Prior knowledge:
alpha+beta; 21 helices; about 65% helix; about 625 residues
Amino acid sequence: MLTKLAFKNIYKNFRDYSVYIFTLVLSVSIFYMFNSIFAQGVMLKLSQDIMVALSGFNKLTYYISLFVSIVLGLLMVFANNFFMRARKKELGIYLTLGMKPKDIIVLITTETFLLALFALGFGLLFGTLLSQVMSLVTANLFDADLRNYQFVFSMDAAVRTLVNYGVMFLTITLFNAVSIGRTTMVKLLAASKKGERLVFNTPVSIVLFLISVGLLYYSRHAIVNSTLLALPTIFGKALIAGCLATFLFYASVMKFLTILGGKIQSFYYRGLNMFVLRQLNSKIATSFLSMSVVSICLLIATMIFSSGYAVQQAFKTINENEYAYDLSLSVSFESKAAELLPEKDRTGIRAAHEYTLYKYYLSDFVSSPKNDVPVWLIGLEDYNALLHMKGRQPIALAADEYTMVTSNMGTLNAHKELRNGIQLKGGSLHYADLGVNLNVRNNSSGVVLVVPQQLASGSEGRNVAVMDFVSKEAAQNALDSIENLKDVWDYDYYSKIDFATESLGVRGLVAYVSLYMGFVFMISGSLIIALQQLSEANEKKQRYRVLSNLGANRRMIGRALFMQTFLYFFLPLIVAVYHAFTTMRLIQEVAEFGNMSYLYSTALYSALTVLLIYGIYFVLTYVLSKRIIYKN
C-alpha cells in the first residue's frame, strides 16, 4: 500500500523534483568520473612516472571526495527540506485521513530510497560514459597512445560512490524522520499560510546599501592600488570588507531598487514591473544570507576554474619558452659542452649551437643592489644564432646598445635598474627594449644581457651547447647518454623531455582538482538559488492567481516570472564577477613572476563554463516555476 503510494507520489511530482534529480544524477556522475581516473590511467597504459602521479591523485581524491560528500550532503539536506516544506500540507492531509506519523515516515523513506536508486543508477550510467570522455582528456593531457584505449568500469570508484551517497541518503532519511516526528497536523496544514518578516525597514536598508557600496569600493581600491609587498597586510582587511559588503548588499539592494524604480513612474507602472520589484524585494530581504553564500560559491568556482586553466597555460608557456631546446648542456669555462655528447648520438641532431655565457654580478652594474644575483652576458651573434635555430627573426643592436632577454616577466620587473644603462669595459651602453623572450638555455636563471659580440667576454662563465633533435627517440637516446656520464665534473643539463614528464603529474593534478572542486561549488550555488526561486513560486502562487483575476494574461505573467527569475539568478553572479575582477588583480600581481599574462583569457573561459552550468539551472528553474504558477 505505502510502496504503491510512494511510486504514485514520485510519478506525480517527478517534474517538480527535476532540478533536485538533475543535481543528484549530475553529482553522482561527477563523483564517479573523478574517482575512476586511476583506472583510466591503467587502461591507457601510461608510463610509470605518470601512474605514480595518478596514484597520488587517487589517494588525494579520497580526501577531496570526503569534503565533497560533506558539502553535497548538506546541500541534499537543504534541497530535501525545501521539498518537505512544499509537501507539508499534503502530509497534513494524510494525517487527517488517519495515517499515523510512523506510516508517513515509512512513506517518505520509501520515496527517498526510490529516488536514491534512480539517481545512483542513472548517475553511475552517465558517470561511466563521462569517464570514457575523461579518458580521452587524460590521454590528451599525458600524450598517451589512444590505440591502447578500451572501455573501462572502475569497481573501486563505484563502491566509493555507493558508500558516500548511501550515507547521504541515510542522513536525509533520519532528518525526515525527526522532522515528521516532531511536527503536528495543525502545523502541517497551516504551513502554506506562514508569512514572511522583513528584516530591515526602508531607512535602514538605504543606509546599509550605501555602506555596502562603500565597502565594495574600498575592497577593490585596496587590492588594485596596493604593492606586492603590502598585499599580505591589505588582503585580510579587503577580504573582510568584501564579505561584509556582499552580505549588506543583498540585505538592502532590492529595497533601494524598489524606491528608485518608484521614482521613475514610466518604468514602475509599466506592465507588472511594480509586482516584480516588490516580489524580489520581499524575497531577497528574507534570504540575503543564502544569496551571499551563492555569490561566494560562484566566485570560488570561477577562481578555481581560472586557476586550473591558468596553470595549464603556464606549463605550456614554460615548455615553449623556458625549455625551448630539446637539450641544453653546460660545463665549466675551460671545457667544451658539445663534447659531452657521445658521437653515436650526434647523428640525431637537427640543429645546434655552442657558445659562451660570461658571468658577472648585479653589483658590477648597479650600486648597492638589494640582491647580488648573477648577470650573464651573451654576444649578439650567438643570440641571433639561437633565434635562427628556433625560426625567429634576428635582432640588431648599435655599438653602444644592449638588451635584456628572459621568458619571465618577473625577472625583468625585479631588475628594472638594469634598464638605466650600464658600464662595460670602460664604455657606456644604453638599453634597447626589443621585446625578445627566447631563453639562452633551458631553465635559464638570473638575468641575461645581449651585448655587441666584441664586448661579450669575461674572466668566468659557462660553455653552453643547445640542441634540437630529429625525433623524440633521438632526444631520449641523447638524454640517456648524458645521464650515464661518468668521470665528468661540473656540468649540468636540462631536457625538454624531463620537464614534460615531471610537469605532467602536476598539470594532471591541478586540472583534475580544479575541475572537480569547481563543479562542486558551481552545483552548490546553482542548486541553492534554484530551490530558493522554486520555493518562492510555490509559496506565492496565490499572488499570481490574483494577478490573473485582475486581468493579467499568461504572457504578462510569464514575462514577469521570467524577469523575477532572471534577476534573482543573476544578482549573485554580478557581485561574484565584481569580486572576481578584484581577485584577478591580486593574482596578476603575484603571477607576474610566472609570466601569466594570459590570466584574463583563462578567466573568460572560466566565466563561460560557469555561465553554461548556471544557465542550465536558470532555464530549468524558470520552466518549473512557470509550471507551478500555471498549474494553479
